[in-house]
Amino acid sequence: MDYKQEQIATIHDFGCNLEFLEARTIQLSEESPTAVLIPALYEELERPALAKICEHLGQCDFVRSVVVSLYAQNFQQYAHAVHFFDVLPQKTIVIWENGSRVTSLLEKLRDCGLDLTGFKGKGKAVWLALGVASLQAEAIALHDADIITYDRSYPLKLLFPILEKEFGLSFTKAYYARIGESSRRLNGRVARLFVTPLLQTLIELFGYRDYLRYLSSFRYPLSGEFALTSDLALNTRIPGNWGLEIGMLAEVYRSVAEKRVAQVDLGIFDHKHQLVGENHDQGLQKMCRDILSSVLRTLTETEQVVVTMDHVRALRVKFRRKAQDYTRQYFVDAVFNNLPYDRHKEEAIVETFEKLILESGQAYLEDPSGAQIPDWTRALAVTPDLREQLEAATIADANDARQYLRKAQDFPTSIR
Prior knowledge:
This protein is an alpha/beta fold and 416 residues long. It has helices at 18-31, 48-57, 75-85, 100-111, 122-133, 153-163, 189-206, 210-217, 230-234, 244-255, 283-303, 309-336, 343-366, 376-382, 386-407, and strands at 9-11, 34-41, 65-71, 91-96, 139-142, 171-178, 226-229, 238-239, 261-269, 372-373. It has one domain: Alpha-Beta Complex (Spore Coat Polysaccharide Biosynthesis Protein SpsA, Chain A). Strand 2 (34-41), helix 2 (48-57) and strand 3 form a beta-alpha-beta unit. The chain starts with 8 loop residues before the first strand and ends in a 9-residue tail after the last helix. It is 52% helix and 13% strand. The strands form 2 sheets. Strands 1-9-6-7-5-2-3-4 form an 8-stranded mixed sheet, sandwiched between helices. Strands 8-10 form a two-stranded antiparallel sheet. The longest helix is centred in the last third of the chain and has 28 residues, at 309-336.
């Protein structure tokens, strides 16, 4: 039995009583309201995963509100999304993150001296959703819109430890086995073949720095599922690139004592998979570049480590050997569990990731500034009622969408 604890608290699932957890979480949520955030592209509505998520989320009586931060190409797509999420029994808000009303609010903020208009992607979506959710919720869980294996235990396991005040936790992060539901193979290539050997190699280069030990304590540091208190949500800078998950852990490291951080076992988990990419600005290659920059930046900020080009070269050489060692271990694990495992393909991916280290490290040394969206407390210092304005703009957008749908005789054809 795996009882092992890490530098942070590890909450295992030894066959936990979900009925008890749900009853207790419902009780706690009456005094401490909860919210679930879902950043999504419109395209996710056309895939089966999001319909399954809505089906299970609608059964979560412990979730008081749902906030969807949606990127839609046009009003018709946004209207379709409002209709799609209206099935949920909870109070549901669908933010049109690139719509004219939200864009106008950000432009007014820019005119007041805080320019967030250049940010886009998941980071912007998460930032907007946290602002709206924190108006009412005290515990906020976030997950992606492409989870194939989703069930209501996911938000339950993330939220319960935050709500149970006796635990004293401010942040929970999911870990799980990335095993394909249909293909039954080891997934999570960036975590397995890049982040894990990268952290071990950095420890060999710079020693057991607290930040590196902290990151290594997370069994799945790239999981996109986490929960946090509303206070932490307002005081956290959100990374504005593909290193969001690692960047969030860095922000938590700066702001929260380790005893207030935990990771929670969600079991078997699978979602949509990214392509490796044809070049370093695409797919998993882009993700690896942003992750490396985030880790190096935080090492310098928090551990006073001065990174040089010599370190980057040594990192590349040592990383490849460490990653190759891991591929042999994954091979043994896969065969033992009767899972397919292509060692050549895995090592080819390692070689691709290894080549990124030199150019990514050089790019970081030339410009270590990074891309982070300022926390909500700074935005509120500029515009104190910005969250209320954002919520009002979203309600207005949704009302327009519902009115449009009522008039559209040939719905849903008219919104395609």
